[in-house]
Amino acid sequence: MSAPELSPVRHPIDVRSLTSYLHSLTPESKGTTLGVNVPDFSKYKKLDIQQFKFGQSNPTYLLTDVDTGRQFVLRKKPSPNAKLVSKSAHAVEREFFMLRSIGLLNRDPESKGNVPVPEVYLLCEDESIIGYVFYLMEYINGIQIKNPEMIGVSPEDKKLYWKSIVETISAIHLLDTTKLIAELPPSHYPQFQNLDKLKKSTYFQRQVRTLSGIANLQNKVVDPIPSFQENCEWLLRRAPKDPAKLTLIHGDLKIDNVLFDPKKKVVIGVLDWELCTIGHPLFDLANFLQPFQLPNQLNKKMSGSDTTIGSENQDSIDFIYKVLGDYSKKVTWDPQDPSNNPIDHWLLGYVFGLLRLCVITQGIAMRSKQGNASSGNAAAYGSFYPFLADLAIKGIEEYEARRRSSKF
Fold first, then answer.
1. Under 8 Å CB-to-CB from 320, ≥6 apart: which residues?
2. What are the structural domains, with CATH classification, of the chain?
3. 124, pLDDT greater than 70
């Protein structure tokens, strides 16, 4: 448990140009979209910059005003738009608008829950400023808990943390998507503009199509993902239909994308909304709880720390189903279809999470080979995807065995 880790800047940006731009900022500034409450940046004369260690996809920086101590977070694309292999994979613009829209819904008295997100201040799509599209947001002074086992945390505090986690995931899935979409710019969210068309395909169909396209591009640079096509075909045969209510999903919900208040033991910030979409909530749950189903040794390699959780530990499996049960008390996907529930579909969600993680880690391997990976641990993460593909096959076999024995 600690504040997000910082390192010397690995991917330099022109701080002088950035500072000059911020000082000249007006509502009419070229290529700029402003948040709801924008600070007076002219107060901040000298900005110190550090880079966060997290951020596999989009480099993320902490800016600190030397005189006042005021802090901001800057998040940018890894390359200029013209050099991106896949523009959809680094859409910080979409992340900015989603954070802005969720913040507006949080102010709605009719909302069923609060989704804690940082306040966003501005989006700059003018690449002449620092060479990349970027946005600026609030710095939330919280801690990261990188290991979901929460080693060193008392059993009582663990219960509080996990209670808040379940409440936060539920709040995301209970957001009013109609109001949310109304706040999003059609130019950045064209897929949400024709909801009838959106409903003609399922979340899993859309995701498999997108992931396959990204993997095919990455295959040109690094080795293909083993058995990827066969596994995707299986997923499409078994995947559940979308919930009756159009549902927002985070798309990369995991414990290190969450910030906590260590005193109150609650979630105070959900980060990294780049991949959010309208979809099936099963994936958010599967992604967050994935470490409890992964083999223990892989958890150790991926987390870089010792842990006892994993598929070999029955307590880990039991914990998965406890969390899914707690969630189900708050969120019902289909009132008329009780078979569409997270407990019965857990293993399918787990397999889909593995396939998606294969594509992500293959992408990290590609960027590492090209020399523009944003994480200091890129080479290690990029080596995982063949092992993850093998785990997906084993997950499919377990799912099919349970179907045959009707043990869902």
1. 289, 292, 293, 346
2. 6-138 (3.30.200.20), 155-405 (3.90.1200.10)
3. yes
